[in-house]
Every structure is written in C-alpha cells, then in structure tokens.
Amino acid sequence: MTAVETTWEGPGAAQRLEILRETKTIAIVGASNKPSRASYFVATYLLSSSKYKVYFINPVLDEILGQPVYKSLADLPETPDLVEVFRKHDDLPGVLDEALAVGAKTLWLQLGSWHEEVAHRAEAAGMNVVMDRCVKIEHARFHGGLRLAGFNTGVISAKRQVLA
C-alpha cells in the first residue's frame, strides 16, 4: 500500500483550542437521529457538556434530540461559527460552498475525513480548517471531559487490576 502525500498542515493544539474558545454556534452537517452514528454521539455530548448553540443539518429529518433539523446551512436562523461535517468525501466541496455562502468561520471535518483541495480553498477564503479530528474529543480533551465516554478512568497505576 502506498502512502498518500499530504501538503496541507492543520492547526496545532493551541490553535484548535482557540477555535473552540471563539466558537459560539456549531452546525452539524450530516447529523443523524441514529444513536449508533458518530454524529449523534457528538451531538449528545455538545448539547450536554458544552456552551455551544448546536444546529442540525439533514435534508431528510425533522427532529434530532428534540431539536429542529434544518435542510441546509442557508436555512439556519443565524450564521454558524463552526460547520462540523459528517458527510462522505465527494460531498465535501459542496459543503464548503454552502459554508462559504453563509459566512461560517471554521470548517471542521470529522475523524477519517480529509480533503486537501477543500482545505486549501477554505483557507484561501479566510476560513479556519480542521480535518480528521473530532470536535467532541477535542473539546473534552481541552476541558477535562475525556472520561465522560470511558476514555480516561482517572487512575494511573503500573499495578495490574485485581478482579474479584
């Protein structure tokens, strides 16, 4: 298997923290009402453990977690600061076009999502770009909440756990 050469370099931890600190509104594009989907897990975390106003974007749903779902970014009642994307690779240029059209500040592509052309276009238009990172994990990491989903038990020990 040959490695794909990348030319885009994302923001470091300090820059990602600054993006999250400046963000007030997040639109989740590709939000799902299925608890098994990553977007649903992220949405439940953001609603319960963050200060963000969260909007859901999905053209075929009406409600997620008791909140209205909008058909597109253009339908939102305000401009989102951050557009978090749970869409397939080929859909990303169109999502960027929508985000630029509404004036979003940040395009954030979920874990496993990488599109260099989209990143370069977004940055050229003045947007912040984060790719292949999870907003939930990054927020929790910076705000001491990684243990909420079992990522961190809070116990550091070299001793083997004794089970009864």
Briefly, what is this?
With 164 residues, the chain is α/β, with parallel strands linked by helices. It has helices at 13-22, 38-49, 92-102, 116-124, 135-143, and strands at 25-29, 53-57, 63-64, 67-70, 82-85, 106-109, 128-130. A seven-stranded mixed sheet has the order 3-4-2-1-5-6-7, sandwiched between helices.
Description:
The chain has helices at 13-22, 38-49, 92-102, 116-124, 135-143, and strands at 25-29, 53-57, 63-64, 67-70, 82-85, 106-109, 128-130. It is α/β, with parallel strands linked by helices. A seven-stranded mixed beta sheet has the order 3-4-2-1-5-6-7, sandwiched between helices. Helix 4 links the parallel strand 6 and strand 7 (128-130). Residues 148-158 have low confidence and may be disordered.
- Number of helical stretches of at least 4 residues: 5
Counting DSSP E segments of at least 2 residues, the number of strands comes to: 7
The biggest beta sheet is recorded as: 7 strands, mixed
Rounded radius of gyration (Å): 17 Å
Distance between the termini: 45 Å
Overall body shape: globular
* Strand fraction: 15-25%
Structural class: alpha/beta
Strand order of the largest sheet: 3-4-2-1-5-6-7
- Average the pLDDT over all residues and give the rounded result: 89
Question: Could you state the order of secondary-structure elements as H and E?
Answer: HEHEEEEHEHEH
Low-confidence stretches: 148-158
Q: Into which percent range does the helicity of residues fall?
A: 25-40%
Secondary structure topology:
Blueprint: H1 13-22, E1 25-29, H2 38-49, E2 53-57, E3 63-64, E4 67-70, E5 82-85, H3 92-102, E6 106-109, H4 116-124, E7 128-130, H5 135-143
Parallel strand pairs: 1-2, 1-5, 2-4, 5-6, 6-7
Antiparallel strand pairs: 3-4
